[in-house]
Every structure is written in structure tokens, then in C-alpha cells.
Amino acid sequence: LAHQGYIWHVAVAEYESPDGETFTRDVVRSPGAVAAVPLRFDDDGTPRVVLVSQYRAPFDEYVIEVPAGMRDVAGEPTEVTAERELVEEVGLRAGTLEHLLDMYPSAGMTDSVLTLYLATDLTPVPRDVHGPEEAHMEVLDLSLAEAVGMVLRGEIHDAKTVIGLLLVER
Fold first, then answer.
1. How many CA atoms lie within 13 A of 145 on its CB side?
2. For the chain, which end, N or C, has fewer CB atoms within 10 Å of the first or last residue's CB respectively?
3. pTM of whole model > 0.85?
4. For residue 16, is pLDDT > 80?
């Protein structure tokens, strides 16, 4: 253990390569995260997604993302975390959560796994905002086509959001 943080910690670990060579790496240990792509259809049948624009300190800018959160409640199933994050961040309750995939957001530096869901059958509920990021985030309701266009134009940079939107479009 090189550093113990609030959620993550950094470990210095020794590994053995496939050919037997040993090497040392810093690894960020993480409980993982969960995200959901909220999909609904407007009165004309046009698919729409609900995203957030929130300030991200490491980049000192607002980043457009799908609703997501850390797995910071011990033992909480990923579906429950996804449901909680939808309520907190965008004020929606999902009637259906469909598992899309588990992804490694940054395999070269962390053991974090992000579980990604498609959220449908959405019902509006009051938001349950937690922390400064959520207090200042903007909720965006966009057509799926517009959101995918933003990905293709390089306006959405967040990996989970890029992957989620492209999977849902597909």
C-alpha cells in the first residue's frame, strides 16, 4: 500500500509476465463503478437519452456523461447502485435495467470494473443530489441521434458514455 484514499488506494505490486520476468507496477485499487444509459421515446417515437454535464476537477471542465457512480456501498448489487444513481443524478426511476457489459475503463492503471446498463421504462422522481459535483450538474435530454453525433464530432469524451451511446444506438 503506497497511498490510502477516501475510495481508492494505490498499491505497488510485483507481477510475473508470461515468460517469467518479474516487474513492478503502481495499481489504483478501486471498488468499481456503475453507469446507466437512460433511454426513452418521445411522443413521435424518437429515441432520447438523458445525460449530465458535470464539473470534473481532474480536467477542470464540464464533462458530458451518462448517470454513473462509484460502488461505494459495500455489498450493494450493481443494479441497486444504477437505480440509486439514476434517482440522484437525473431524477428517474427505471422500470427495466438491462445489463450491457462490464468494461475495464483503464486496464493499464487500475483494477476498476465499470458495469454498464440500459435503463428503460423511466418514471420521473425527485432528484436526490449528493456532493458538489451533483449539486452543480446540468441534466441534458437529447435525442439519441444528437448524442451519437456529439460522440462522432468529438464533443463527448467520457469512455463509458461513448461506449454506452454507441451500444444503445447499435
1. 4
2. C
3. yes
4. yes
